[in-house]
Every structure is written in structure tokens, then in C-alpha cells.
Amino acid sequence: VQLQASGGGLVQPGGSLRLSCTTSRSIFSLSHMGWYRQAPGKQRALVATITNGGTTNYADSVKGRFTISRDNAKNTVYLQMNNLKPEDTAAYYCNAVSIALGSIWGQGTQVTVSS
Predict the structure, then answer these.
(1) Kind and range of the H or E run holding 26
(2) Which of 4, 67, 111, 114 has its CA 20 to 30 A from that of 35?
(3) Which residues of 30-69 are buried (b: 16+ CB within 10 A; e: fewer)?
(4) Sheet containing strand 66-71, strands side by side
(5) What's the mean per-residue pLDDT of the chain?
(6) Rounded distance, CA 87 to CA 70, Å?
(7) Would you say the C-alpha torsion 82, 87, 91, 96 has a positive or negative sign?
(8) What is the DSSP secondary-structure string of 96-111?
(9) 104 with 94: CB under 8 angstroms?
């Protein structure tokens, strides 16, 4: 597995989770990183991205609640998710994209927001 995602789970509405995605140095240093999610019956959709220069981009639905960050020393990208809502329930996927390596997907980690 080239991208290893973790941190999903069951949380109540209003709660928080932090997702992590770790990869190799050779992939991480070249890549813009992102988180996507896919709910049952829906297409995979962008949640947030961060370039290797640190520029971030968010889906409108998560702005102000989610924060993407990257730790270049640990080859890890994070997604801090606060004030979670039931509609955030989905499988979350980590992505690395670069000209040299193309698009690489990690395995999903399930986030369930329910009382």
C-alpha cells in the first residue's frame, strides 16, 4: 500500500476526528496531496487538497470546519475535521498526484457521524 490512511471512526454530531495519510518520501516530496470522500450511492468528491508548497483548497461544504495540513518531515498529510455533521459520513480516501507519478489512491477510511 503506497498511501496508508487511518483515523476514521464513529463520532457524534459536533465531534471531531483527525485523519492521517502516510506515504514514502519519494511520493510525498513530489506530490500535491488531497482527501476525497465517497458516500453510499454517490460519486467520490473532493474534500480538501494541499500542494507541496502548502496552498490549500476546500470544498464549500467543509470550509471553516475541516483543515488539511502536511508534515514534510513525517511524509504525512492530515485532515482535521471539526463540528462533524451526519452528511460528512463517507469513506475518506487519500490521494497523491504529481506529474512524475500520476495519481495514487490510498485505501479508504470510514467516517460515520451519528448519534
Answers:
(1) helix 25-28
(2) 114
(3) ebbbbbbbeeeeeebeebbbbeeeeeeebeeebeeebbbe
(4) 3-6, 17-23, 76-81, 66-71
(5) 96
(6) 25
(7) negative
(8) EEETTTEEEE---EEE
(9) no
